[in-house]
Each structure stands twice: as C-alpha cells, then as structure tokens.
Design a protein that fits this description.
Elements: E1 4-8, E2 12-15, E3 26-31, E4 41-46, E5 53-57, E6 68-71, E7 77-81, E8 86-88, H1 104-107, E9 120-124, E10 131-141, E11 149-160, E12 169-182, E13 188-191, E14 198-203, E15 209-216, E16 219-227, E17 239-241, E18 247-252, E19 260-267, E20 274-282, E21 295-298, E22 304-308, E23 312-317, E24 328-332, E25 348-353, E26 359-363, E27 366-373, E28 385-397, E29 425-429, E30 434-438, E31 446-450, E32 456-457, E33 463-464, E34 470-480, E35 483-494, E36 508-510, E37 517-521, E38 530-535, E39 541-547, E40 553-557, E41 565-568
Antiparallel strand pairs: 1-35, 2-41, 3-4, 4-5, 6-7, 7-8, 9-10, 10-11, 11-12, 13-14, 14-15, 15-16, 17-18, 18-19, 19-20, 21-22, 22-23, 23-24, 25-26, 26-27, 27-28, 29-30, 30-33, 31-32, 31-34, 34-35, 36-37, 37-40, 38-39, 38-41
Length: 569
C-alpha cells in the first residue's frame, strides 16, 4: 500500500495570542497576620483556575503599596517582595534577601511593607530559565514637597532560583541603575521588540525626563534618558504600559489644590523612544477629596485608557484624535462602606489586568474588597464594572501587585524581530509512516506538531502513521523565548496506489501571531470566487468571508476574537 503526499498551501494555523509564561498567576495581599484574628493576614488570588481561587494564608510578610510576586512558567509561586525583603515559596526570608534598599529610613518600613505604589517590579532574566531581576526603589528622608521622603536611587538585585535547593538566593543586591531624584514608584516594564529583552521606565521627579533601562542576557546593558512632553508633577498614582507595549501613560499629582495630569505617549519597542506626547488635564473637582489616590490601566486590546479617579471610573478612547472629548464616566462610587472593625469606604485606587484579561481594582482604604471590570475592551457601560465584586478573606492595605505583560513576544515584522524562530519543515513518506523534519531557523527551543486527525507531537522530528486516505492539515509551531511562528500545509494521503502529485497556488497570511489586522494575500489570476472560513479549536465557525476572483488581497480585523489558536480554511 503506497502513500502519496500532496502538499497544498490552502490553510494556515493562526495564533491570535500565546497563553504561556504564567509568572503573574499568583497575587498576594494582606498584612498583620496573627493567631487570634483571621480577618488579618494573607490573601491569595490564584489564577491557575478560572474563576480565580481566593484563600486565606498565615504569613509573616506584610504588603503595602509596594507589592511584587513571581511564579515560574507553570504558575507556581517562587518568591514575593514588599520593598524591604524577599520571601521564598516557603514564606521564609530568602537567603540574602534582606536589606533591599539599604537606607535606614527605607528599612524602617520592614514591619508593614513599603508604602510606595509600583516601587518594584520583577522580570525573568533573558535567556535564563531560573534567574530573575528585581528592580526596586529606595525611600529616603529628604524634605521634598514638605514631606520627609524622597526617592534618590533605583536599584536592581538578581535572584537565582537554582540555589538553596530551589528556594532561591539573592546573588547580587542593591546595584544602582539610576542615582537621581525620582518619581514616587511608577516603575513599569515592557518587552523589547525582539521578544526577549526588557525596557524598564523610571520617571524623574516632577519633570518630563524618563530613564529607560534595557535588560538583556548580560543584565542592565544600557540606561538612556529622554525628555519629552510637558513638565509633570510627582506624587501618588500609577503609570502603565498597554499590553502590546506600544502606549505608555503616567499620572501626575502634587496636591488636592492643583490640577493633575495624565501624560500619554507612543512607545517604540525597538529603540525605546517615546513620541507623540498627549496630555489630559484633570480638574481637582473630578477626582474627589484625595487627588493622589488615582490609578491608570489600559484595556487588554489597548483601545481604552481607564482613569480610576477614586470616586469614578472614566474611559478615554485611544483610537480617536480628540481623546479628551471621548471622556466617558462608566461607574461612580456607590458609597458602599466595608463592614467590620474598619468601616472604610471602598472607592477606587490601583488597577491591574489579570491573566483572565479582566481588570481588578484595589480600594483606596483598608478593606476586604476589590472591584472588577469584566469586559474592559468595550466602550461605555457595557464594560460591566462590578463594584466590590471580589471579596478577600483578609483586609488589604490598598495593595495591588505590579506586573508587566509577561506574555508579550516579538513585534512581528518590526526591524528588531530578529530572534523569533521561523517555522519550516519537510516530510518524507515510506510504506509505514511519514517522517517530518524540522528545518526552522533562529534556534527554536520547543516544537508542537498537529497532524490533522487528532494526533500531535512535541518532538523536533516526529514520525506519524496515517491509517486512511484523505487531506490532512499538518502544522508546526516553533517557539523560543522571543516568540513563536507557525507553518501549515495540507497533506494528501493516498493509499490506493495512485502515483501522482498535485499542488495548488500558495496564499500568504500575515502577521502571525497577531491580535489586530490580518492581511491575506491571494494568488493572482484566480478564475473563480473563493470562500475563507475561520474556525476555533473545537471546529466551530467564527467568521466566513467570500473572496471575489478579481481581488488579490483581503484584510480582516480580529479585535473581537477571543484568545487562542484558530485555523483558516
């Protein structure tokens, strides 16, 4: 029985979004653990199950506004940090994990945790499976703004999880990145356009100067700065990148008696440059009594900026020219007061996007609640704000973990997309099976094959036996730290001895992966109409379009597609 393979370029596997790198799947809040009152202590929000599992935990570390946790690729907790010291997965102090931020005033907060919003962020070290870089600021006595605190140093420390039996050890500590008067926290990061390295943004105090540290496999490889836009003001508040890394926003406020600002920039993930500054002036009347308790967060698709202004949640449409005119209040604080010994209001404060792509919002006082935006990509009240929709087992002191988008990879088609693998394979049939050979470029580290009849393989060069004649879509997805690439071919298996080979004209579909516009380049001189159909992983039809014979290119918008892997026929 002879197998004849016919290769037809008629379909492609479309990767809309890669759901891996579960470094942000465990969120921790809570403080003041004790043996007599379990309303205090640790709360765990575990996104390894959906909806997230929420449980109580007795732990030593207290968490205030500075809040970092880190999981491995599979979502298992490795360590967490409160701005002063690092705890390992046994909830004990990590070896050499004390005295981060050595100034005596910074260390004086060791009992409660550092009250510095986005005062630290943790990143996987590029090209390392088990090392992490913790970027953190130090609170010092200073006299700025009439207070006793200033930020004069931004450090980094290195954590090696291969040491101490897998519980980790801090191998390098308090290495200065920037020595300058800096904004209060607002440390955020996004992936470099090569999909491997990291950009960390460190704003200067009450200025329009931004330090940008580039983290590569060598550590902090360069620190540049850029002055852009109008002079800002510093105080409590939040900075944020869009999930795709192409937008950055920063909130600035000095006092309740002055207007505050939202500064928005475009960001080039290849060269780290900001451009197109845009400022939204916020009147003090719009942000309630405490002007500084304000958060910012982009919708997962990047089209909406949410201003969490304590007494209201406001949307700004990032797709229009006049962003200020698009302002829309989608929720007003309902006045709910948390019951219990601390009857505090549950107004809005800091936002963070969850792995489920919902937005979670901490309260501006010590409460047991968070708010949820269930459909954050939708303009208007359809975004579905559920106030105090998540109840924690313990009190949370306004805290919210600070995470980048760990699942952002190479910027496909950009000038710096030089590390992502390029998928290629060949095949060779014989009487028993079909041998597939990976010929991908740029050193993939993972392979995932599907053979069109339910079988799959993670081997680099698998063999597969087909039992019946037919057309089978064979797909290879290759992955490395910078991202993934997929190639698919239609393979015809003929078992009746017919000795012939057929082929068809190819089509080009790009970019892949994508989460926005998909371009379909069609063969020239087609003599008939075509139909293109999008399927989800269960084979359900999501979209069908008709391609007329006189067209050679079609564009399809995928913003409304859910995350996952899709096929196109």
């Amino acid at each position: 029985m002879k197998r004849i393979l016919t290769v037809l370029a008629l379909s492609v596997l479309l990767i809309v979004k890669i759901n891996a790198q579960k470094h942000d799947y465990i969120w921790l809040t809570g403080y003041s653990s004790n043996d007599t009152d379990s309303t205090f202590g640790g709360s765990i929000i575990d996104f390894n199950v959906m909806p997230p599992d929420i449980t109580y935990q007795f732990r030593e570390m207290n968490l205030d506004a500075c809040n970092v946790s880190m999981c491995d690729d599979e979502g298992n907790l490795l360590f967490y940090f409160n701005g002063i010291w690092i705890a390992n997965s046994n909830h004990e102090q990590m070896v050499n994990g004390n005295n981060l931020g050595p100034d005596a005033y910074n260390q004086s907060w060791s009992g409660s945790g550092l009250p510095l919003v986005q005062g630290a962020i943790s990143l996987p070290r590029p090209n390392s499976n088990n090392q992490y870089i913790l970027v953190h600021e130090e609170l010092k006595q200073g006299g700025l703004m009439g207070n006793i605190a200033s930020i004069d140093n931004c450090f980094y420390s290195i954590i090696d999880m291969d040491l101490n039996g897998g519980l980790g050890e801090v191998t390098d500590k308090n290495i200065i990145i920037v020595n300058d008067t800096l904004d209060f926290g607002k440390l955020v990061a996004t992936k470099h356009g090569n999909g491997r390295d990291w950009w960390v943004i460190i704003p200067e105090f009450s200025n329009n100067k931004y330090y940008k540290a580039l983290i590569t496999p060598n550590g902090i490889e360069q620190v540049n700065n850029q002055t852009i836009g109008d002079t800002s003001i510093s105080g409590l508040g939040q900075a944020v990148f869009s999930l795709d890394g192409n937008k950055y926003a920063r909130y600035g406020v000095h006092s309740t008696l002055e207007p505050s600002y939202i500064d928005i920039f475009d960001f080039d993930r290849c060269n780290g440059e900001f451009s197109n500054p845009y400022r939204i002036v916020i009147d003090t009347a719009d942000v309630g009594f405490i002007n500084g308790f304000t958060g910012l967060i982009f919708s997962p698709n990047g089209n909406i900026l949410y201003h969490l202004n304590r007494d209201a949640i406001v949307q700004y449409d990032m797709t229009v020219t006049d962003i200020i005119a698009s302002k829309d209040t989608v929720a007003t604080y309902d006045g709910f007061i948390a019951p219990g010994p601390f009857p505090f209001e549950t107004s809005f404060f800091l936002g963070q996007t969850g792995p489920d792509e919902k937005i979670y919002i901490s309260t501006s006082a010590v409460t047991e609640y968070m708010h949820i935006i269930h459909n954050p990509n939708i303009l208007g009240e359809g975004c579905n704000v559920e106030q105090h929709g998540l109840e924690l087992p313990t009190y949370n002191n306004r805290s919210m973990p600070n995470f980048p988008n760990y699942r952002l990879y190479a910027e496909v088609g950009s000038s710096c997309d030089t590390l992502r693998p390029i998928a290629q394979f060949t095949h060779l049939p014989d009487m028993l099976n079909v041998a597939f050979t990976d010929e991908s470029q740029r050193t993939p580290t993972e392979w995932f094959w599907t053979f069109g009849e339910g079988g799959s393989s993670t081997e680099q060069n698998p063999q597969y036996v087909y039992n019946t004649s037919g057309m089978y879509e064979v797909c290879l997805m290759v992955t490395n730290e910078a991202g993934s690439d997929t190639i698919c071919q239609m393979v015809e298996i003929i078992l009746d001895g017919v000795d012939e080979l057929e082929f068809s004209e190819s089509i080009v579909i790009s970019p892949n992966p994508t989460s926005g516009l998909l371009r379909i380049k069609l063969p020239e001189r087609r003599i008939e109409d075509w139909e293109i159909t999008f399927y989800d992983a269960l084979g359900r039809i999501l979209l069908r379009k008709y391609l007329r014979k006189n067209t050679d290119e079609e564009n399809v918008l995928l913003h409304d597609f859910p995350s996952g892997v899709f096929s196109i026929k």
